[in-house]
């Protein structure tokens, strides 16, 4: 069975959770009574983070969007401010705050590594990844929070609390402690208390489900002047193809899936990706940390497609899905608009402007064009990951969408 | 005579300048052959920096706007990037670069001490100060520079040159070394080489004309939380009036002139002002450093008028000028628009948007309203600085403008 359950047996979860002090939870009850975050953890499989038909998905995002907030501490790692939020029932979420108006385009003179993170990029990336059929991004939902009641009065983290202040406009602001943009000059501010944030479901604790971090072979140089190897060598993929784990299994086409996702949303900041250690090399890639996507709609960044363009390989299932989303009836911009409209923050304003949505269509056409060019030169472009049954079910699923 | 010449005798200038290596200058020739910057220095009087009818004013700004650039080094002091530019004939100018689009309003959550400096604020402040009849700001002019040819290739300053880079958009950028906003995240960028800057005439060297820096009694706290004395005590002016140098002469009404200027252009950053030491306490106040003016047009900042509102004093000449500029035929916004249109940068786009210009009219009415309220309560509001002759000549001058 392809969808083998994530083998965090319930007993193991229970004992570990008890050690962590979760002993008020009723472990004798049925899975249906578990909180949504735990059902999400138990539903992780070798091939995807969640099943798109699982009703728990909606329950999880509803949980994140509505549960009372018990605590907020700064999350270390990364260069910009993010908070770890705790809920009743031991749920947690990763919070990224809105720092600029939703439609502010990245300054043309800023490098990808200096760009602000965007809360709506985190939300939109989750929707896009799901619509592409990947299911490799932990669920993310938008929420209008009260910075005073939900953060200032709840946090026990001095690094956060000591940076609160009231701005000249009378708004409650804070900035925390981090490498970039954590200063009075770059505050996170409520209006006067209300702040839009993204809340991402947290993955199982690393002690229960250790992960491995992989440096992307197509990582950028993170330098103002240096070029990466893949930018200088058009035959770069030849050596990647011969290097484990890319020389075997689906790792290379998984990476190309990720490149397609990143190109569509113009994310240049994919320096690493992660996998669950226990699944070894035959498993899906986690698409974590998408805050720098959707920074520019007026331009595309073809270099993000380098893995596809240089390797000329793509999963059949991905290609079929892309072709479907290029059809007038299933246009990517339309399904994204519809999907994003489900998010609680969409009531205030669309999470992606029309300019960003139509950039998706334009970029999708560009991906298909690269595949087409590949097919003119090579015969082994399509990686056939579908048997007859899968193809039927995919067609079935698509037309019902 | 009120307009006593600045007694930097020519001989003194000559000898000092020779010591500084200016010995290739023809000191035997007539004043008319001196470079404009030197004539500007020699024209400084006890009561004003320049005479508005002096034809050298136009020559000086033309000089700054067109002369070949010989060098550029970073100017120390202050918190943001500025450069000292050198021209042939030993002229110099203080350069402030354009860092954001001209109409970007200051973020409502930024404090006055975190605001960016604006090149168009420096230019506009000079025009406004002149139209108000103060003549207390060194002439400033806009210029479209080539960052590569005029700065990168000319600078000998390693602090500047080592920060040059080419941005993702292919623009030539740099950021220098300073306390705030000197980083890759806040670059100064050409398009791809052309950059708008303001160039301010430099005052006579401190060795020739030492200046005294005075802390403004109405200085803000420069703290996110603390209030200054004047913000807490409505009778604050009573103590200022009794404290030298404000207890004598025109210092208090000079300060109020400055407050009027600052309120009109919404400059909250007037922590100090300077005077020429040799003129003692009976002299005008220099209105230097206006880069944080004109940051917001949609709101006024009444606290800037505190000196006028708390002391209820104003020069008659200032009041007459303000009343004139409130008349339909001499409306401040109209004369500013016309005056700013003379600047070389106005060809590309107006230096102040219509929103900023109409804010000037609105704020002017607010100043007159404060004076009116003062006059209802006090009889000594008007400081009479005009004799009969002056009043005639003022009226004469105004109607001819």
Automatic annotation (TrEMBL), chains A, B:
Report the GO molecular function annotations.
ATP binding; metal ion binding; phosphotransferase activity, alcohol group as acceptor
Asked if the record carries the keyword Zinc, the reply is no
Tell me which GO cellular component terms the UniProt record holds.
Answer: Golgi apparatus
Domain of life of the native organism:
Eukaryota
Q: Which UniProt keywords apply?
A: ATP-binding, Disulfide bond, Glycoprotein, Golgi apparatus, Manganese, Metal-binding, Nucleotide-binding
Cofactor(s) this protein cannot do without: Mn(2+)
Membrane-crossing residue ranges in chain numbering: none
Q: Which Pfam families match?
A: Fam20C
Q: Which Gene Ontology BP annotations are present? A: enamel mineralization
Provide the FAM20 C-terminal domain boundaries: 164-379
What residues does Mn(2+) bind to?
Answer: 117, 289
Q: Which family does it belong to?
A: Belongs to the FAM20 family.
Q: What is this protein called?
A: FAM20 C-terminal domain-containing protein
Task: Provide the species name.
Answer: Amphiprion ocellaris
